[in-house]
Structure formats: C-alpha cells, structure tokens
Amino acid sequence: MAGSGVGGAPAFVLPALTTLALLAARRITVRDELAFGPFMLVGALIAIAV
Description:
mainly alpha; 2 helices; 72% helix; elongated
C-alpha cells in the first residue's frame, strides 16, 4: 500500500509546480486548464521505478 503514496503524491505535486511556474512566467492565466492525465502517468512511472 505504500506504493500508492509514492505514485499518488507526484500526480498532485507536479501539476501544482508546473502551474505555478507557468503562471509566474505568464505563459498561462488563472482561467487556463492543464491536462491531468500526463501527470498521472508520470506519477505511475515514478511509482514503478521506485
């Protein structure tokens, strides 16, 4: 069950960091949307690798 936290945490942390960086760089606005699926995939790959 510990593996779910390893894969789940990056699935929420990575989009948050990406959004903050894009907002700071003025590449997106608050109303823009980011796809969540790619971040879930990255989180799953991190869980598999760890």
